[in-house]
Amino acid sequence: MDAKQIGEMVDDAVLAFALGDEIEARDLLNNVLSSAPSNLEALRAISEVSLSLDQVHEAESFCRQALQVDPKDLASLVSLARILVKKGDKDGAEEATSAARILGWKEELKDDESDSL
Prior knowledge:
Layout: H1 3-18, H2 22-35, H3 40-52, H4 56-69, H5 74-87, H6 90-116
Helix pairs in contact: 1-2, 1-3, 2-3, 3-4, 3-5, 4-5, 5-6
């Protein structure tokens, strides 16, 4: 599967999820991940799909895999906080929220510096 096909399949999965077909979305994303196990977009998406299906442990696992690919991925940090809240891990959720907030501030500062140049 080439990069274009992977991108199209992730897009199809996101559309299926948006239309309420979590099972189709999960199947498409599992297909992508069998060919490209460190595809950040697929890992993010399957984490959200898993959370929607109340598969909290799977959602957390996929989210942590996404953070291994990119530890500074704001979307994955926010997702992790939501997953940990649902899991009942208050301390972990606070830690993930704090990390996301700090990362968000850093991105804002970087954007402000770029705007002033």
